[in-house]
Amino acid sequence: QAKLEELSGLSAEEAKQRLIESLKDQAKLDAASYVNEIMDDAKLNANQQAKKIVIQTIQRVATETAIENSVSVFHIDNDEVKGRIIGREGRNIRALEAATGVEIVVDDTPEAIVISAFDPVRREVCRLALHQLVADGRIHPARIEEVVAKVKKQLDNEIIETGKRTAIDLGIHGLHPELIRIIGKMKYRSSYGQNLLQHARETANLCAVMASELGLNPKKAKRAGLLHDIGKVPDEESELPHALYGAKIAEKYKEKPDICNAIGAHHDEME
């Protein structure tokens, strides 16, 4: 021991203290590294859990709320106008129903005619046609067919323009023309008292913001948000829930699989 002390220039006690200090420093480094590793894992897990919670919350808030209004009311000035709309033995009403695909209810309700149809675009065609017919004064089957054909063309052009403008406003490009038309038709449909097009626009913007916050692709999220309710705007009836039907429509018109999946999964009806 004396020889070692002489060679090292340290006493046994000094050497012991230096060893202890060295071990303490190494232990601190090891502990700090271990703590940092634990904190990194905790942050990663917390971030993943936070994303999961936010996404689940959004999905739960976006519950199925499709309560459709299937009637429109056309107001008239007096019963004399109502009689002219009905026509002799109801021929004008029958011609209007045949041309527009709606059911027209004429009862004792004063100064009103009820237009009934599940498709809101058909109801709008009938309402606009009635407005033009009453304003023009010529109401007979041939004139009805002429006016309805004109209104259908005008409304279809408006629908396409609305769809295009919506996509441009949101910065969404490359949509199939039929998807553009479906988006435009949302203007004439409501869900739980809210205009469906306005709802789709709000959802698109919300999805983009949330995606940015979560580190996801905001452009894809915005596109999926805009299209998420296209299954509520069918040209034909479907037995599928609207989310799954919407995914089917999106796939038909060449939307990418992740967009189709987002549409189909927004009510947890697919993974």
UniProtKB/TrEMBL annotation:
GO terms for molecular function: hydrolase activity; RNA binding. The keyword RNA-binding applies. Keywords: Hydrolase, RNA-binding. CDD domains: HDc, KH-I_RNaseY. InterPro entries: HD/PDEase_dom, HD_domain, HDIG_dom, KH_dom, KH_dom_type_1, KH_dom_type_1_sf, RNase_Y_N. Residues 196-271 form the HD domain. Gene3D superfamilies: Hypothetical protein af1432, K Homology domain, type 1. PROSITE patterns: HD, KH_TYPE_1. SMART domains: HDc, KH. It holds the Pfam family KH_1. Coiled coil: none annotated. PANTHER family: RIBONUCLEASE Y. This is RNA binding metal dependent phosphohydrolase. It comes from human gut metagenome.
